[in-house]
Amino acid sequence: MHLVKTTKVLLQELRDENWETFFGSIKLFCDEHDIVLPEFSDQYTMGTSRSCQQKDHITIEHQYRFDIFNVVIDFHLMELSRRFTEETMELLVLCSAFSPDENYKSFDIDILCRLAEKFYPEDFTEQEVCVLRSQLKHYKRDIVNDPDFGNMTTVAELCRRLVETATTERVFSCMNIVKPAARNKMGDEFLGDCMVVHAEREIAEKVKCEDIIDDFASLKDRKVQF
User: Fold this and answer.
1) Separation of alpha carbons 29 and 181, rounded Å
2) Minimal CB count within 10 Å: which of 33, 76, 81, 167?
């Protein structure tokens, strides 16, 4: 986020104060590569045919500086401002508290609770934020000593590992539901299929039985019509 801010400042300085320096580097490049530059003090003319017209009696330098150079920089500044609004920048700064780099040096419980309160008010009640604070204290103690979460440097790595861990625990927690005592002879392959359907039931509920029958019937010709 500091790089975003300094980039915007440097672009603004380039636009407002450093045209001469920029133009000097262009002239130097053209001289080194035998590129002929037009006379920038001449009047700017649109087109090259006989029907070409002068444009408001402006010079070539004015055209390149104000209609091209400044316009391009303004476009970049606008894109940076649009992509990195104040709210977006604050969200990204708060999310940096998740960073596992340097043994979770940036981890901050107060920042993460503020992240939950400000950006996810519909997902966390006041009571749940208090519970979250307690859970984060346990998390901070546990994760630095967990070998499965060591040697990480990015938030992406941490998120991937947390999703994998949560998915595994979720699947194991539903095993007693899918395979009770009455189904203790269930094979591993059938058990795996049932657990996938149970764990991803929100997706499975959207699949129509008729579509499953049609797909099954299309695998090969059968003597009995479904």
Assistant:
1) 81
2) 33
| Residue 32: per-residue pLDDT | 92
Relative orientation angle of helices 126-143 and 109-119, to the nearest 10 degrees: 140
Check residue 224 and report its DSSP letter.
S
Residue 51 is predicted with a pLDDT of: 47
CB atoms within 10 A of CB 115: 19
Is 207's pLDDT higher than 80? yes
Among 6-20, 90-104, 152-166, the range of highest mean pLDDT = 6-20
Bridge partners, 43 (sequence order): 59
Q: What's the rounded Cα separation, in Å, for the pair 108 and 116?
A: 13
CA-CA distance, 187 to 162, in Å (whole number)?
29
Could you give the C-alpha distances from 142 to 21, 146, 167, in angstroms and in order? 55, 6, 19
CA dist list (Å): 208 to 26, 100, 167, 192, 213: 65, 43, 25, 21, 9
